[in-house]
Amino acid sequence: MSHCPITYDPIADGPNYSPRGLRILHSRLARLEPLPFTETQLIQEAAARASKMSVQGVQPKLSAVLRVREGRFDLVDQYGRFILKPPSVAYPQIPENEDLTMKLAKLAGLEVPDHGMVRAKEGQLVYWIRRFDRTGQKGKIPVEDFAQLSGVDRETKYDSSVEKVINVIERYCTFPVVEKRIFFQRFLFNFLVGNKDMHLKNYSVVTDNRVVRLAPCYDFLNSTLMLPKTREESALPLGGKKSGFTRNLLVQYLAIERLQLTQPVVENTLRLFGSVIPIWKEWIDKSFLSQALRGRYWDLVKERSELLNSR
Fold this sequence. Notes:
CATH architecture of the largest domain: Orthogonal Bundle
CATH topology of the largest domain: Phosphatidylinositol 3-kinase Catalytic Subunit, Chain A, Domain 5
Number of strands: 12
Helix content: 25-40%
CATH class of the largest domain: Mainly Alpha
Strand order of the largest sheet: 4-3-5-7-6
Number of domains: 2
Number of helices: 10
Largest sheet: 5 strands, antiparallel
Distance between the termini: 44 Å
Strand content: 5-15%
Radius of gyration: 19 Å
Oligomer: single chain
Shape: globular
């Protein structure tokens, strides 16, 4: 018995994807063919098309559309509705890592676009995510990342702090009280799963019906698994610190003092994570990560959840 790389549902040996997984991509999708590229070819394609991509970053990325009748993804330079991320030569199992982390985020109630994995020509898994900044045939939803809003560029995306991120939310979001609660949830989530690469380019706002709000989650992964030797717990300092976070720093300083959240909101958020972490264990165990990486992933979540629950 194998598992669907979109939903993790058990599937028979015949189909590559569960019916529920195919429906997530499109209600009329009957099958999904492998990408007609090897891992090396995908990386070469990403490098060749990089200058045409509106979404940049360290990981190789490809823009794609879904051909429902043919049951396949096609790579495109314009009007893509999906982002594909192939494996990385430098870091093991990045697609599997990001896919699992985004699923854990959804389980915690965070806003997450449709996502999953598709097989490449030789069986390797490629991560896909539906673009949240596209609408209709060629329409675009306005998106600005926090580097743009802070007046810095890609080279200085780490030159900020969590406090400055909060200032951006207060300045630009239509309902900052709501968005600060969401930010607290996301910050705790990324701390729990070891995502220490949340720089300014990984925070964005969207403008929808004249309402400016935090964009859905993207680029969430357990970067601690990829960079185990660096001791940082956050890309941006909180209270002048990038590591050695404590419950007091996260709850009393970040939530109460800086975000000015009420005690019931904070307690409800902590209670939510406390209830969902046992469910995370089940999803980590059935993920596509290797057994060794699944163990390291869970050990980190367990250690940090215990810290968060300490009094």
